[in-house]
Amino acid sequence: MSLLEVKELTKSYNGTLAVDHVSFTLEERTATALIGPNGSGKTTTLSMIAGLLKESEGSIHRDFKSGIGFLPQYPQFFPWLSALEFTEMAAQISGVDGKKVRQQSIRTLEFVGLGSAVNKKTGTFSGGMRQRLGLAQAIVHQPKLLLLDEPVSALDPTGRREIMDLLKSLQQDATILYSTHILNDAEEMTDQLLFLKEGKLVEQGSLSEVKSRYAEPQIRLLFETEQAAVLFESRKLWPMQRDRNVIALPIS
Ligand code: ADP
């Protein structure tokens, strides 16, 4: 059964299209990566699905009652609150039953690996701890749909590995849509990839499916990532592309 249906979703900022008639469906308990370079419309898309931003055109069918969790790219906390106080506040805002707020917050903090930091002030948290706390506030109400904006991009390899493993375990109970500009991060968790380029959904499916749809001369446009910026003109270079965290997309 589909949990999210996005049809012709469009957002323009002062006449400039940031998201351009994007349509896709997510099935229950699946993980999907929204992949594209910076500025391709990932955050805008996730924000609209989360209900934080109004779409200019199109429609989004999702069930707010079954819960939506959102992890922003740069989660913000009140530095004077402890991790537990912050998570409890998030739980209350998300409608967790008052009697269960404490227990569910502690359980969630333990799940994300912050069990020994529940009473620490969030203002003292490292980048990795902030990402874990961001995840905790997104899942404390056990949402059926989890939207994660670049959940691991800012982390070192160890932190990235740990958060990836957490996300994989969440997949048993929730539908996950997460954005990334790093192909390896996308592929590691799922083969359901949505390729976003300049606001348009240019491809969807596993990397091998996408590759197989294009004959040699058609794949050549590449966009920059933090790791590399190279223009490939041949399919022969795909393996190298993977090594270097580079993404190629068909020319529109
Ligand atoms: P991504 O998450 O893939 O980096 P964004 O969704 O943040 O992409 O941005 C998509 C496009 O929309 C970019 O060109 C960006 O400059 C523009 N944009 C995003 N937010 C705003 C805003 N609040 N006002 C004007 N333009 C914006």
TrEMBL record:
Organism: Planococcus halotolerans
GO molecular function, one term: ATP binding
Similarity comment text for this entry: Belongs to the ABC transporter superfamily.
Protein name: ABC transporter ATP-binding protein
Domain of life (superkingdom): Bacteria
Residue ranges of domain ABC transporter in the record: 4-223
Entry-linked SMART domains: AAA
Keywords of the record: ATP-binding, Nucleotide-binding, Transport
InterPro entries assigned: AAA+_ATPase, ABC_transporter-like_ATP-bd, ABC_transporter-like_CS, P-loop_NTPase
